[in-house]
Specification:
The complex is a heterodimer. By secondary structure, chain A is an all-alpha fold. The radius of gyration of chain A is 24 Å and the shape is flat. The longest helix of chain A is centred in the C-terminal third of the chain and has 38 residues, at 227-264. Chain A has twelve helices and no strands. By secondary structure, chain B is mostly helical. In chain B, 68% of the residues lie in helices and 0% in strands. Chain B contains twelve helices and no strands. Classes of the chains: A mainly alpha, B mainly alpha. Chains A and B meet through α1, α6, α7, α10 and α11 of A and α5, α6, α10 and α12 of B.
Chain lengths: 318, 293
């Protein structure tokens, strides 16, 4: 097992190098070049030359990349152009809030998604099955920022209006934006969870249908095992493999998708940081946040791979 | 799905008969519903100019943020432009954007996949290395980064979303190519002296056609959703262009006073994405019965 983990960790290195190179090279996409981007369009040639020298842009590309990697390993992601703070500090204060959102919504969606998927699979072609799968597809089709906006309208306008009309005057039920209390979590989590829940329900249903058809399930039933135990213990355990993979991948997607939810709900996470700084062309922060999210994504996938091998003894570690 | 037993035992007449896959598709009501949505969307996109009741760009400040009325069926946006006409023109933009970005992904992705699968070895290693790196980014993030550095425009959004869809095609085509190139008919073609280009174009690509069609339908859904996301973040089309994501971004400031401005563009996006997903799922079931549930 240790050997397998070490091997997977080593295999992740080229990917991480590629990711860092892409992020490193991204600043070169800027029309006019990075120096103009940093110094402003009106900068004189002397200033541009100076900026180039300060940034080390006058050196060969490969040396620049190696220097960049060296700084990165010391967690030096440069300084924000807008605030002047080290990028790593900004990320440190924001990342935990994004992780909170991702973990809570993934937990909520996993519990609901798997339950719905299992229920649908045990009653194939029933009303529940058809209905929940159409809802699941609708859930996946909904743009996540839009479902967020709809939730805001519902909880801040429609529900209070209705409650007032039936004699319970009230303000907005939930705070539409911001963070700090558990009430602030409800809407962003609902919006995020609705989307990932739909994917999990579809995935769970598909794998459960396959597993329930297998011989050992028939054996378990023939033994007189309770249907509940057959479904939730015997079948679900084997169906969990692809589901775990999907959940792991979704964690990474949630980190990226946080950009949208955090914008809608003004949630002060890393995604919001990214969107806010795009307007200011704060390139070090953009690079830093993209790099952080992507490294998180790669590491999550790595973790899922290892977990997969742990869950399925048939997978050889060598 | 139940297999139908032929009851007609007379000699086959030479009549035109739809291929099995098409008949299977027609018998799937959800897929047909998806097809209906998709066709409506394409129709609206093409004839947006003709069917719009008003000028989509004409603002009427006295009507700003007004809800649905007899003249303006879906109401007016934040500066009094007709929502319905803007939605119609938005369909045209989404359609163009979807087709072009999926086209970019398809052409580049299929090329990379065929090359990697057919030639194998170092080429395969390099191509799949690139794909692995691209997949190391949560997809929307890569698009955001591209557009953030290149500057926000409809054109850059198309390129960014196109680039996102490359890995899907590359993986799909590579794995199919790997198995098809070992088939006997490829060996026969080679023995007859066919060169690489002929083998790829005449023998390998036709055999990956079906999965590519399925994937492209599903990819249209992904592209349209991603485009709306970029528009919503203000990274897509210029502010006045009636792109659905753009409209959502503008309407966001008025969600409590005029919720209809954000309601319709989001509904339209959801419906179109839903339609493409249903059709894509149906096509997959129809073209590949092995995957059937």
């Amino acid at each position: 097992m240790t050997k397998f983990i070490v091997r997977r960790l080593l295999l992740a290195i080229p990917t991480l190098l590629g990711v860092s190179f892409l992020v490193f090279a991204s600043i070169r996409l800027v029309p006019g070049g990075p120096a103009i981007a940093l110094a402003g369009e009106l900068a004189t040639p002397e200033i541009i030359e100076q900026v180039n020298r300060e940034l080390g842009l006058d050196q060969p590309l490969l040396i620049q990349y190696v220097n960049y990697l060296g700084r990165m390993l010391r967690f030096d992601l440069g300084r924000s152009i807008r605030s002047g703070l080290p990028v790593i500090e900004e990320i440190q204060t924001r990342l935990p809030r994004t992780l909170l959102l991702a973990v809570v919504s993934l937990t909520v969606s996993s519990v609901l998604g798997i339950t719905i998927g299992v229920t649908a699979a045990t009653r194939p072609n029933s009303l529940f099955d058809g209905g929940s799968m159409i809802f699941a597809l609708l859930g996946v089709s909904m743009p996540i920022f839009w479902s967020g906006l709809m939730l805001m309208i519902f909880f801040a306008v429609l529900l209070p209006q209705w409650l007032t009309s039936i004699g319970f005057p009230t303000g907005p039920i939930l705070p539409p934006t911001g963070s700090g209390t558990w009430q602030h979590l409800v809407m962003p989590v609902t919006a995020l969870a609705a989307n990932s829940m739909a994917i999990q329900a579809r995935m769970t249903r598909a794998t459960m249908l396959e597993v329930l058809r297998q011989d050992y399930i028939r054996t378990a039933r023939a033994k007189g095992q309770k249907e509940r135990i057959v479904v939730y213990v015997h079948a679900l355990r084997n169906a969990m493999l692809p589901i775990v993979t999907i959940i792991g991948l979704q964690f990474g997607t949630l980190l990226g998708g946080a950009v949208l939810t955090e914008t809608v709900f003004s949630w002060p996470g890393i995604g919001r940081l990214l969107v806010d700084t795009i307007g200011f062309r704060d390139y070090p922060v953009i690079q830093g946040t993209v790099l952080t999210i992507s490294v998180g994504f790669v590491l999550t996938n790595l973790f899922v791979d290892i977990l997969y091998a742990y869950l399925d003894p048939r997978i050889k570690y060598s | 799905m139940t297999a139908s037993i032929p009851t007609d035992f007379t000699a086959p007449k030479k009549t035109f008969k739809l291929p099995t896959s098409v008949r299977r598709l027609i018998r799937n009501p959800l897929a047909m519903f998806g097809l209906f949505i998709v066709l409506t969307f394409i129709f609206v996109g093409i004839f947006a100019e003709q069917i719009s009741p008003h000028d989509y760009d004409l603002s009427n400040l006295s009507m700003a943020r007004k809800g649905p009325s007899a003249t303006y069926v879906l109401g007016n946006d934040e500066i009094g432009r007709d929502m319905l006409s803007r939605l119609f023109h938005g369909a045209r933009i989404s359609l163009t954007l979807g087709v072009i970005s999926v086209g970019i992904g398809l052409i580049v992705g299929v090329f990379m996949g065929v090359v990697a699968g057919y030639f194998g070895g170092v080429v395969d290693l390099i191509v799949m290395g690139i794909i692995d790196i691209m997949l190391a980014f949560p997809s929307i993030l890569l698009a955001i980064m591209f557009v953030a550095f290149l500057g926000g425009s409809l054109q850059n959004a198309m390129i960014a979303i196109g680039v996102l869809s490359i890995p899907v095609y590359t993986r799909l085509v590579r794995s199919s190519t790997l198995s098809i190139k070992e088939e006997l008919f490829v060996e026969a073609a080679r023995a007859l002296g066919a060169n690489h280009v002929t083998i790829v174009l005449r023998h390998i690509l036709p055999n990956v056609f079906a999965p590519i069609i399925v994937q492209s339908t599903l990819q249209m859904a992904v592209a349209i959703q991603a485009a709306a996301a970029l528009g919503f973040l203000g990274l897509g089309a210029p502010p006045d262009v009636p792109e659905w994501g753009n409209m959502l971004q503008k309407g966001r400031n008025f969600i409590f006073s005029a919720p209809h401005i954000v309601l319709y563009p989001g509904l339209a996006t959801m419906l179109v994405v839903f339609g493409f997903s249903l059709l894509g799922d149906g096509l997959r079931d129809a073209l590949d019965p092995r995957l059937n549930r």
